[in-house]
Write a structure and sequence with these properties.
This protein is mostly beta strands. 9% of the residues lie in helices and 37% in strands. The chain is built from 4 helices and 35 strands. The strands form 9 sheets. Strands 3-17-18-19-20 form a 5-stranded antiparallel sheet, with no helix packed on it.
Length: 488
């Protein structure tokens, strides 16, 4: 039975997904059901290279998408080829990580393949019938759990050439019947619903052109499913059945990477520094909490609070047990009271955080970019539970150095053949900052160029007794050694 939440001032049904998708055995999309909260009753809290890593699976190609889980399978996507010609979908067995099946599809649009461009960045969604894999080429593919292709559709005619500095990063959301796609770029931008059974377009709502890499999420208000999207200046809410705009909140700055998080009637917005038009005060205030209040005929979006210090970056905010958690680009975690925005504490983490944190079993899991996961107890005070590594510190450094050398050698090879290796990445070969912002010093420019090379933790999924962590070409399963626990 779907939980009913009663809000002060009005009674309403407000949830994130159906129970069939919300099972503790499932992690059905980007940030689970869209809020990065797991229903798992138990989850591992300690591991190391020699402890509680149940298995490691190498997956063909390279992927920046998070793993998704349905019952006894873990699904991931990746790309291959110098121009991302091949799109790959893999199914791994939960018990041992064996690849049960792997399918390859030809991309309908080629793209530049380098560390600063999206490479299978969109996380797929999965339900009881199929997995729906979306790629930055605009291809959306539905496959059965056994790997049978159900349908494939291309958005190439809808998008034309995708024009974003880093490529497309939006992950789809899902309702019972639709896959929801947010396409924001310098060309035609829109929100679109695709029929899960047929792959046909159900509705399309035009949006103003903008550059963004955020993903939408689904919530239910008074038995009405809505799509919530935070993107490049605004927060927008649409009717999921029709695509009709319900409400908009404007005036935001820097909300181009973090995705919104819905908690009861509150929407947490993460925003980063806008290098094109720097205004740090505006960026801080755009890390905020917006309240959605439905009436009989209209829905209003109003700011409940705005932060004073927070500036997010890659990771999306999460809300859990009366607190909101934001992470900035240096790896500082901010814990705020979700009701009034008052800071509870701030703490520097051991790693930068590109993956969004996950809440499970009264803990917050913070997945560091370089494989260091910090587990803390949820609540108003900093309480460290554990610090965990996938790779030893020495091994991580050696692997990273080897990857950087290989990337630089590839750049030199392409440069000697007359190709500009910087073409298509945010530096543009002009010593510019990300997004065409202010010039960067040479050392910072090189760090930016190679920041996504090698072992990067892009996302994680938590189900009962197991954590699945994704790097570019590996998936790790964390499981307590004394638990046989997950379904086989």
């Amino acid at each position: 039975m779907t939980a009913l939440l009663i809000f002060a001032g009005f009674s309403t049904v407000f949830c994130l997904a159906q129970d069939s998708i919300n099972s503790s055995e499932n992690w059905p999309g980007f940030r689970g059901t869209g809020n990065s909260v797991s229903n798992a009753n138990t989850a591992p809290i300690e591991w190391s290279p020699n402890r509680n890593i149940a298995w490691k699976a190498n997956t063909p190609g390279y992927g920046q998408s998070s793993p998704v889980v349905w019952n006894n399978q873990v699904f991931v996507t990746s790309i291959e080829g110098a121009s991302k010609e091949n799109l790959l979908v893999h199914a791994l067995g939960i018990s041992n990580g064996t690849i049960g099946w792997s399918r390859t599809f030809t991309s309908s649009q080629k793209g530049r393949n380098n560390p600063m461009m999206s490479r299978a960045a969109p996380t797929p969604v999965v339900d009881e019938k199929a997995i729906y894999a979306f790629f930055e080429s605009g291809d959306l593919i539905a496959l059965s759990h056994s790997g049978e292709t159900l349908w494939k559709t291309s958005l190439a005619s809808e998008t034309n050439e995708l024009k974003n500095n880093h490529g497309l990063g939006c992950s789809p959301a899902q309702t019972s019947n639709f896959v929801i796609l947010l396409i924001d770029h310098a060309g035609p931008s829109f929100m679109m619903a695709i029929n899960k059974k047929t792959g046909e377009k159900v509705w399309k709502t035009t949006r103003a052109s903008r550059s963004s890499w955020t993903s939408p999420t689904i919530a239910t208000i008074k038995n009405r499913e809505v799509v919530v999207a935070s993107s490049s200046g605004s927060l927008d809410v649409y009717d999921a059945a029709t695509g009709k705009s319900i409400s908009t909140y404007g005036g935001l700055t820097g909300n181009t990477i973090p995705s919104p998080c819905v908690v009861d009637d509150k929407i947490l917005i993460g925003s980063g520094e806008n290098r094109m038009n720097q205004n740090l005060a505006a960026s801080r205030e755009s890390n905020c909490c917006i309240t959605l209040k439905p009436d009989n005929s209209e829905h209003s979006l109003t700011a409940t609070w705005k932060s004073k210090k927070v500036i997010s970056h890659h990771a999306s905010p999460i809300g859990y047990k009366d607190h909101a958690y934001f992470i900035d680009k240096t790896g500082i975690l901010y814990c705020l009271n979700i009701h009034n925005g008052e800071e509870r504490y701030s703490m520097r983490l051991p790693n930068q955080q590109w993956a969004t944190p996950v809440a499970a079993a009264n803990n917050i899991y913070l997945f560091g970019k370089e494989g260091v996961t910090t587990v803390i107890e949820a609540g108003p005070e900093w309480k460290l539970v554990s610090t965990n590594r996938i790779w030893s510190e020495d091994t991580a450094a050696q692997r990273q150095e080897a990857s950087r050398k290989a990337a630089k050698a590839e750049d030199e090879k392409r440069s000697s053949s007359g190709e500009n290796p910087s073409r298509g990445n945010p530096t543009g070969g002009r010593s510019r900052g990300p997004g065409g912002g202010p010039p960067l010093p040479a050392a910072e420019l090189e760090a930016t160029r190679y920041s996504a090379v090698g072992d990067v933790i892009y996302g994680a999924a938590i189900v009962n007794n197991a954590i699945f962590i994704r790097s570019g070409n590996e998936v790790f399963c964390i499981r307590n050694a004394n638990i046989s626990g997950v379904k086989k």
